[in-house]
Amino acid sequence: MPLMNFSDKRRASILPPTTHTPMAIPSDRVPQNVPGRLYVDSSCIDCDLCRETAPSLFARFDEGGYSYVHHQPTTPEEIALAQEAIEGCPVEAIGNDGDDKDAA
Ligand code: SF4
Q1: Which atom number of ligand 1 is nearest to the Cα of residue 85?
Q2: Looking at the whole model, is its pTM more than 0.70?
């Protein structure tokens, strides 16, 4: 199967739910997340990328073996890090209920 280019990925993101890559699901948030718009859902595979990218925002729940949001981003720098983590998560387990202009 050939690799998808960026346009293919964008196209895939608007396909019906049965065929597109899953997005974070708000109702599936892990319970350790602090309240707020940024969250991790239960599809986290504990790859560590978000914790490496934004340790001020994400932590590991050792008993469960997954990440959660321990601090909601408030500064422009934290918001940028949150967005970077969202985009980098390999299984799209990080969600943002807010709109883009005040992201994360
Ligand atoms: S980047 Fe995604 S899969 Fe990896 S630890 Fe963070 S939430 Fe989990």
Answers
A1: 1
A2: yes
